[in-house]
Amino acid sequence: MNLPKFLFSENKSALPGAGLIICTEVPFFYAQIFKGVTIGQMTELCQKHKAIAAGMPYSYNIGVIVLGAFHTSLVPSPSKEFAQEMATLAREMSDFYLNEKIIPNEKYYERYKS
């Protein structure tokens, strides 16, 4: 069985209004969703959470912040290539969230339009 590249997980009692995007490929990076944030707030959140990378779905004040991996021993050492790969991963996760959550529920997400 082939898994999709990303899965969305939501625990409404622990993280109301947010959730996680999980990459199904080793080393299984994960990102947290932050709703209602500006680009300036994203910078602060990235510093606060020691983010690996971050992205925002086009035209929405929603942050997708890559926070880590489940198999940290398999994460490559930081390098220019690694930074580029993580920026690409954050963009792919943002696009996934846009396509899987925002577009099907566009009326709900209107409040987060930038």
Write a structural description:
- This protein is α+β, with helices and mostly antiparallel strands.
- It has one domain.
- The chain is built from 3 helices and 5 strands, in the order βββαββαα.
- The chain has a 5-stranded antiparallel sheet, sandwiched between helices.
- A hairpin with a 6-residue loop joins strand 4 and strand 5.
- The termini are far apart.
- The relative contact order is 0.19.
List the helices and strands and how they pair.
Elements: E1 6-9, E2 20-23, E3 29-35, H1 39-48, E4 53-55, E5 62-69, H2 80-102, H3 106-109
Antiparallel strand pairs: 1-2, 2-3, 3-5, 4-5
Distance between the termini: 38 Å
Helices, by number, come to 3
Instruction: Quickly give the structural class.
Output: alpha+beta
| Percent of residues in β-strands | 15-25%
- Percent of residues in helical segments? 25-40%
Rg, Cα atoms, Å? 14 Å
Q: Strand-and-helix sequence, N→C?
A: EEEHEEHH
Strand order of the largest sheet: 1-2-3-5-4
* Low-confidence runs: none
Q: What's the β-strand tally?
A: 5
Number of domains: 1
Mean pLDDT: 89
Instruction: Report the biggest beta sheet as strand number plus sense, adding barrel if it closes.
Output: 5 strands, antiparallel
Tertiary shape: globular
Compose a concise summary of this entry:
By secondary structure, this protein is α+β, with helices and mostly antiparallel strands. The radius of gyration is 14 Å and the shape is globular.
